Amino acid sequence: MSALSKKTMFANKHLRFKKAILATAVAVGCVTPLMAAELSGRVLDSREVLLSGVQVSIPALKLSKVTGHDGRFAFANLPEGNYQLVLSYAGRSQQQQQVQLSGDLALGDLSLAVDSNIDKLTVQGQLNSASKALSQQRFASGIVSVATTDELGQFPDKNLSESLARLAGLSVEPDQGEGRFIRVRGLAPDYNTVTYNGTQLAAPEAGRRAVALDVIPSDLLASVEVSKTIAPEQAAGSLGGTVDIKAISAFDRRDNFYSLSGEGSYNQQQSETSPKFSGVATGIFDIGADKDALGVAFSASYADRKFGSDNVETGGSWDLDDEALEEFEQRQYSISRKRQGAALNLDYRPGGDTDYYLRTLYSEFVDTEVRQSLATEFSDPIQAGTDTGAELVRGIKAREESQSISAVVLGMKQQLDVWFWSLEGGMSKADEVTPYSLADGQFETEFEEGVTFLGGDIIRLQAPDGAYEAGNYELKEVEVADTRTEEREHNIKLDFGRDLLTSWGAVELKAGAKFSDRKKTADESLWLFEDLEDAGVSALSLADYSHSNARYGLDHFGPAVDPAALMAMLNSLDNSDYLDDVESQINDFRVDEQINAAYLQGNWQGEGWQVVAGSRYEHEQRDAFGSEYNAIDEEFSPRTYSGSEAHWLPALISKFELSDNSLLRAAATTSLVRPNFAQLAPAFLLEEDDDELEASFGNPALKSLRSTNLDLGMEYYPDELGVMSATLFYKDIEDFVYATDLAGYGDYAGFKAAETYVNGDDATLYGLELNLVQQLKGLGGFWQHFLLSANLTLTGSDAQISWYDDGERMTRDIDLPSQSDRTANLALGYEDEQWSLRLAANYKSEYLVEVGELDDARYDLFSDAQLQWDFSAKYKFSPALQLYFNAVNLTDEPYYNYTGKHQFNAQYEEYGRTFAFGVQLSRW
């Protein structure tokens, strides 16, 4: 295609995009209702705490609103008349109030009264947290799961991802025993989106779209809402769900507020104590003649957690025909993880119906990690107890890795007579930096006999005494790396609409457009120090770099490598002589994505009905830049890609109230997610092995994954605080992405290997979510202090992968990676005026981690089932002062991966128990 043709095509697409926006505006503007007045107010409980999630309805007009975090509600352009106002909130009886509307009416503060004894228990505790979350879930138009900041504080979780894993349909992907990434309904973290007040957060890691939520302290947040049905007004980018982090605001509380907490924790595995501090302060101020017009909220958090793990892994190095092990590695980790963050949020409400707001977030995560390792490679694959020869390699990795995520959202929203509109600009930046550090240092020795292994899940080395003497190991090579990744996302969006009252119900029409730009860059430099004797290095024995034995709890380990001594030796050399040119360039890439979007959405409320319907259009322009290296000719050349795709994403979401206590939900939606950056990176490596060609390369031309989603659920809310719900879901996923080998097909017919990523056939995901939350109030006076929470998600999936064998296409069926058949949570809480206790369990069944060999399912890597028990206790000296105790991983649950069958270890890791004591001081 000529350059002129491309420009013409690009211009036509943008012309169609502008026409779509214009048509949307005309469609919304054509509605001309007759309305007269505005009704507004704010809802508090009897302790004057603002209540979010309260449904305020006017039955005569078939109209309802749900209060936000500031407790506010507003109905615009209502006909004059007498109306009954109904307030509904989880666990509390409905409250009714008559209003006379003959012009704009500000009701002020409405108190949602309950029994005073119960209210004493719920203002700060578990019951209040559950009420907020359940109310927001009940009155949402779609299927959502909500965790408020109070709810997050009820569990002894170390970060946000672990807290979210308590919700129905969610589970966590761990790292070093700490939750990092969230899976929604069994879909891998890269298939879900994380936003901050609607602005998509950038991801720090080079190859991923998934945001590691352990970077973000939960102390900085008001709540987290997980949308499992995506409405047209929400940006595309997820198949499982969108995790929206809501920022704190000064207007979330009626008066000025502060809270300070300090904590010390102890990890058994490392015998280390770790501090944690956090604080929140909010204030509301007058600006000139405008009373209570400016809200300022600030929060900050700091934690320095010292922990570690003991590990033994084979990485799947089994000869499964003979059930024999080829090699394994023992590892001991010592980690200091510093997590610090801050948020400053401003709200300006000068009066009338105009709000201006600024939301900011900065969070940094710094890992200082030292990993001691002992790798054993047998002369031949052996079964347990069989004597053989082996090469033993003692290794060291020592690095300081930092990840940061920042976000800024600036916006305004306004009600203008029959219109409402908002304009918002957002920016998010994330980076991951590992400066010049030890990636792998290797000291090796060899034994002709006397080496074997014992054990099952935990594999232990049996070797001669010389295997544990530092003087027997000689320095082979050292790899040093410097890596930097950065992602930036900028967006601006405009939303507008109007309300319409008709005899058949209330309609809210909305439309909008969003323009976003996202850039991901990765840069890596690698040095390989080898043949050091030729460089004049005389200190080549491990004895020159070892001063103690490693603390390894699974087996006798022997001497540890001192990373400082090894780096001191390397710093005496000229590192430019050891730069690995190929590895330092082949992994560098940049991917640019420009996304233009528009939507039209209607929200109708009738007698017991609510229906949201509409469609979203998204157009993506993708440009990728990388390198190709021909190892045969030893030449680099640039490799670039430019392409685009567009999608229409219709949605229909409905809710029907079967009775005052029960409702039915149904939804048919479409969603998409773009391939991750490791798959899109355009690097291409061509090599030759025994006169046969081998290639490995990314595929920037991959299509986005698109899903058609069906949901059907029923919810029952008893008179007491609680819910019983069941939701069926089904996802038909097109263009599922997987790794494959194209050798023997098309352009790679003469290749021995051609490893890349491709779009495959459809995949399906289906399941059932069951959720129960119940205050045991109906059993008698004592039982009202208990809250039972339980959920179970049953999930199944089907996907197919393919490859080529001598030019013939071969296929086999697999489960979707990261999809557990069963995930469950159970929590029993007790609370009175002084004590708050909670025992919680989190379970997930085994799941496929990755495909080991395309043509042999026996080598697929699985993660074993995990059940973790945690306990928390709080003692309240007063509403303002409390002490707390947390115990994490009470049963010392390990992390275990296996190859094909449970008996074939792929990775075993222990983390120990963690105990924490803390104090919290609050001004209410």
From TrEMBL:
Domain TonB-dependent receptor-like beta-barrel: 478-890
One Pfam family hit: TonB_dep_Rec_b-barrel
Domain TonB-dependent receptor plug as annotated: residue spans: 139-242
CDD domains, A to Z: ligand_gated_channel (cd01347)
TM helices/strands, residue ranges: none
InterPro entries, alphabetized: Beta-barrel_TonB, Beta-barrel_TonB_sf, Carb-bd-like_fold, Plug_dom, Plug_dom_sf, TonB-dep_rcpt-like, TonB_rcpt_bac
Family: Belongs to the TonB-dependent receptor family.
This protein's name: TonB-dependent receptor
